[in-house]
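Build the 3D complex.
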Amino acid sequence: MQATMMSTPLSLNHLLERAGRLFHDNTIVSRLPDKSLRRHSYGEYYRRTRALAAALQGLGLQKGDRVATLCWNHHAHLECYFGIPAAGGVMHTLNLRLPPEEIGWIAGDAADRFLIIDDVLLPLYQQFAHLHRFERVIVFAFSGAPVAPEFTDYEALLAAADPDAFDYAPHAEDDPTSMCYTSGTTGKPKGVVYSHRSTVLHSLVGALPDATAVRNTDVVLPVTPMFHANSWGMPYIAVMLGAKLVFPGPHLHPEDLLDLMQQEPPTLTLGVPTIWLAMIQLYDSSLQPGSPHHGRWQLPTGLRSMVGGAAVPESLIRAFGRHGVWIMQGWGMTETSPVGTLAYPRAELQGASDDERLRRAAMAGVPMPLVDLRIRGDHGQDQPWDGTSVGELQVRGPFITGGYHEAGAPPDKFTADGWLRTGDVASVDALGYMRISDRTKDLIKSGGEWISSVDLENALMAHPAVAEAAVIAIPDEKWSERPLACVVFKPGQQATHEDMNALLLTKGFAKWQLPERYEVIDAVPRTSTGKFYKLQLRERFPA
Amino acid sequence: MQATMMSTPLSLNHLLERAGRLFHDNTIVSRLPDKSLRRHSYGEYYRRTRALAAALQGLGLQKGDRVATLCWNHHAHLECYFGIPAAGGVMHTLNLRLPPEEIGWIAGDAADRFLIIDDVLLPLYQQFAHLHRFERVIVFAFSGAPVAPEFTDYEALLAAADPDAFDYAPHAEDDPTSMCYTSGTTGKPKGVVYSHRSTVLHSLVGALPDATAVRNTDVVLPVTPMFHANSWGMPYIAVMLGAKLVFPGPHLHPEDLLDLMQQEPPTLTLGVPTIWLAMIQLYDSSLQPGSPHHGRWQLPTGLRSMVGGAAVPESLIRAFGRHGVWIMQGWGMTETSPVGTLAYPRAELQGASDDERLRRAAMAGVPMPLVDLRIRGDHGQDQPWDGTSVGELQVRGPFITGGYHEAGAPPDKFTADGWLRTGDVASVDALGYMRISDRTKDLIKSGGEWISSVDLENALMAHPAVAEAAVIAIPDEKWSERPLACVVFKPGQQATHEDMNALLLTKGFAKWQLPERYEVIDAVPRTSTGKFYKLQLRERFPA
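Done.
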């Protein structure tokens, strides 16, 4: 027998129409380069987005053509999120933190036809313009300055288009909507291409109460960049549900973010640990009577904060928890749309101690609905979910990539039975909480046993004098490899090796797992997406 | 270009596996016929469900075969919800409130191969057994009594099967999982067949924070029957997210439900207005010092209550609101999986008065994500969303049926461009809140103008002496039709026609809209699903 259900395709266009119909009075706030705030209603947003789509079709955009964006987080970037696919195009977010040569290479690999760029980023564009010729460069006058005549003016383009006459490009639900390149600490970046289907499914799953729990009454501040991993899907979720959005523009320093939170108090924020770590240090210092910022900020009561993109130390969760801010961490990749797991509170832990609950909150989390997850041991066996058995984390699901643009599905990235090999080493406990021990290549093999650099880092960062810690392997004749800890002290503070080792011993590390050596550094080098860039540390401390 | 996403099909089996993996320690409570409670862990549930699937395959179940259920709300029915599709079968929920001849006819139309039935419902089965021959009748010993040898014992079947050796039947996401017949106050009942895809999408949408907002920490009491319209999808949602379930079994009287809420306090309930109306009357009376139930019950603090299946009067929302219970109503049909709209709180109304917010809460609600909704006027035009323009409510989306089992897509049910014609007359306001004025056939045409029977009913039910009111059209020589109000008074109370008319005038009705006549009746006749059965009233009061 056959099901009788309609075959209506999943579509971003439905979400846009829904927002225009239902949420026209709700608000989108964007912080401009001069730090002033610009406000749009969802009604204006809806009309502008359709105008953008109409304009792109007027410029000759064909189905499947890539339109690159090089933009901060703001309303016009959100217009691209829905307007480019509405016209049948594929939005390709370029990562402005990458080296210019890499941006140019990526634009060429994607064969981007048009570029939509913030005027304040034109100097960056000039550095890679010779590597890829865009047929048209459309400049968004984010700063308010006039657009030079050799470029197309985004506002003029929209003003000349008729949103009422626009018709959505027909599409199937598997048709592409957007693409993003992996940050690739190893090898060339590779393009992941999302579809209407994957994006709608990821939005539904990501909005669930046990995920971001977004309601139309929320005020969402996405600090995670819209130019990488879809700002964790929040632009789609917010439009689907009509939540108020507050975009920080280019102002991502803790001081700026705290100021913005005073002006437009959010109920939900999204960001990476680095920024949140710096923010809480600044906030806590502002509470001291002698601080120049004394009394300037008050963290919003009941704020939910999604933090991810790198491991979140328990100390960060505790530090925000003292001010009533709930930190929820997750794990994901560009390849997973990106949310794969979230450390949400579980019924089974309601009677548990604070320490026990914090221990879980400091893990990478539980797989979201529609995400299949397994841990593959060294011999290809499925590891039990016992909290200790480690192996490679592999995932599968309808919003997880099955290959890469032009690169297919290389066997180092995909198993023969079609699962994504994440390159992370992890274990899962009986409640389904996953813990990343390490990247496959960051594990330290000492005397035939593995030492997790991530575990050492998290423990060291709990020391009151330590701001950050990164642990790498150094070669060792006897043990094969030994851990080297690179630590960054908080301003004016320090600790001895003995102090730090003593702390590690109280945290349950064995003597042989303690760092062989400590190096004090000024800052941990990071990739463009905020992850520890251990390759640079390995080059700096080769032995 | 092509998207690179995996083509993993949406599947109920994924949700079941997820529950078994993640939520094994959470609980499913079922109330037995003797009112005692039986508890299963999700871990046991998972194994029993797989055992059921293995057993059905052992009995020769083939892909697409229908397995009927005739069961109350309890754990074994939940096992059928996932176990039958896991084996490749289609669960067909038979509605035990229908006349036996109709049940038999429906089983024949669906060509049900097996029947899974509660032992306490065997007397009902005997009344329609001659109309359709099930190849096998599997009896669930709900009462605990031994199963007669001419039947297959559900427990023995499960005990003999090996859940570990079970393999899911392969399926595509559009393959059928379950079917339900429309209640059909007119015409023959028609079968709606749901798929893996429609059920998973409906579950994701229905669980959103602006819908039922289910978390794994919730305790859900579904009073809405699992034998009609999937208990609003809650069995699927709860398993997907691991929420604790409390099933009321056959005990649906207000006294029983209040007792159950004392024993297992829910955070979320689902029910129809009739039961909730009777419950609040009983509860309020129990607060009187002289009541025999004085002090027996306390409604759970912060309880969320989804009420639907028929219009919810504002007075009901206010009555529960006084005790801190939030009533949220919705609209849906068997054809819409069933949730189509929900009257959830909107950001735009945060500054509005209580009256204004209650006015919206008393409407049918806002379309859910993935649901397209339009109001078609008499001349086929789309009506504006101005809160006053009425027309036929039409819907479209991936969890809305596009036809019926064996009956295709008749033109009185579907438009030429593929929308479902609901038969409801409605308007939508600027915020997207939909208001059902009437069923097409229940509108009263008086002197060329329409009078809404639903509006009159809701207004009359706000009278303190009125328990229920149903308004029908009676023929009138001069005006063509005029309203007749059938009212049920609360015990020991009454009101005059003048009283009730005076109330209607204060509620904004014009003089010509007032009922032509009042009839006092003992109870409003209802369909098997709790809707007013106006056909019977029309027969009783022909003029």
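The mean pLDDT of chain B is 94.
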